[in-house]
Amino acid sequence: QVQVVESGGGLVQAGGSLRLSCAASTLPFTKNNMGWFRQAPGKEREFVAAISWNTPNTYYADSMKGRATISRDTSKNTVYLQMNSLLPEDTAVYYCALGPPGMLTSTRGYQYWGQGTQVTVSS
Predict the structure, then answer these.
(1) C-alpha torsion angle, residues 68, 49, 4, 102 (rounded to 10)
(2) What is the Cβ-side half-sphere exposure of residue 103, based on CA atoms within 13 angstroms?
(3) Per residue of the chain (123 residues), what is the pLDDT tens digit?
(4) Distance between CA 123 and CA 111 in Å, rounded?
(5) Is the CB of residue 119 less than 8 Å from the CB of residue 18?
(6) d(CA 51, CA 39)
(7) 8: Cβ–Cβ under 8 A, 6 or more apart, which residues?
(8) Under 8 Å between Cβ of 61 and 44
(9) Alpha-carbon distance 52 to 84, whole Å?
(10) Neighbours of 39 (CB within 10 A)
């Protein structure tokens, strides 16, 4: 069974920063894409950022460009999401996902999901 564990969420004021972590236990742990999605109440789950296994390539939602950085530690099969200049509209449950090489910016590209970590940005 693949385990995906997120951490790092919390309450932050607008303009502040958070660093989310996602550790995925896989057999094997290599050759997996890892990404972040978020979902606010009553809204669809949307893409935030992703990093591919191979090159690696990184991808960001338009709303996150310039404010977020995704990185990885392949030895730990762990992905980090550094978010700066946070806005109230960033408030959501953030989910980490793991999947085989393929669709990076769609939920359909990921097979395994964590339980989510709450990010709340106050005005």
Answers:
(1) -150
(2) 8
(3) 788 999 999 999 999 999 999 998 865 556 788 999 999 999 999 999 999 887 789 999 999 999 999 999 888 888 999 999 999 999 999 999 998 888 899 999 999 999 999 999 999
(4) 35
(5) yes
(6) 19
(7) 18, 19, 20, 21, 81, 117
(8) no
(9) 22
(10) 15
Q: At residue 62, what are phi and psi to the nearest 5 degrees? A: -55, -35
Identity of the residue numbered 17: S
- Which tokens in the block code for residue 114? 């964590």
Q: Residue 73: enclosing H or E segment and its boundaries? A: strand 68-73
Token match 């030895």: residue? 75
- Residue written as token pair 């960033």: 90
Whether 113 and 99 have beta carbons less than 8 Å apart is answered as: no
Cα–Cα–Cα angle for 82, 84, 87, rounded to 5 degrees: 125
